[in-house]
Amino acid sequence: MAIDTILLAVGPMDTVRADGLAETVLEIAEPLDATVVIGHAFTKREYEEFRDELGLEERVENVDPDAVAEKRPPVGDLAEMFEEEGVDHEVRGSLGDVGDEVVDMARDVDADRMVLGGRRRSPAEKAVLGSVSQDIILQAPCPVTYYRDLDVME
């Protein structure tokens, strides 16, 4: 199975591990000349909370998710890293339930591999709060590389 497209699914918590995520993706993308899709899914509530901070005036009903994703950290930093390395990349945004949207995004871009980061949680925390990363891994239409920054134990 050839790897032509890699979806790097990121969220706001990934700013602390952006370098590690980029390195992980580059290990795959560079030798295979694969395209990287930097994907950021966000909820309506999340958008409303950060739209003023990002200088966006549109209400959630009128927003272009791709344009919002481009402004949301760590997407810009990742795009810059891939640009510096000469790796083809694009940015995709999505609005809705984060887990479902990331899985749909993987299908939409026909991802051959997905990379996502996560944080360490106890079994009790997972039971009470759920785990978006775990949901994505279980529903993903392609193999997933899970990146956990061992220096960041949240």
Summed up, what is this model?
The protein is 42% helix and 21% strand. The protein contains 7 helices and 5 strands.
What does this protein look like?
By secondary structure, this protein is of the alpha/beta class. The chain has a single domain (5-148), classed as Rossmann fold. The chain contains seven helices and five strands. The chain has helices at residues 18-32, 44-50, 65-71, 75-84, 98-108, 123-129, 132-139, and strands spanning 5-10, 35-42, 89-95, 113-118, 144-148. It has a five-stranded parallel sheet with strand order 3-2-1-4-5, sandwiched between helices. Strand 1, helix 1 (18-32) and strand 2 (35-42) form a beta-alpha-beta unit. Helix 1 (18-32) packs parallel to helix 4 and helix 5 (98-108) runs parallel beside helix 7. The longest helix has 15 residues, at 18-32. 36% of the residues are buried. The model has no long low-confidence stretch (mean pLDDT 87).
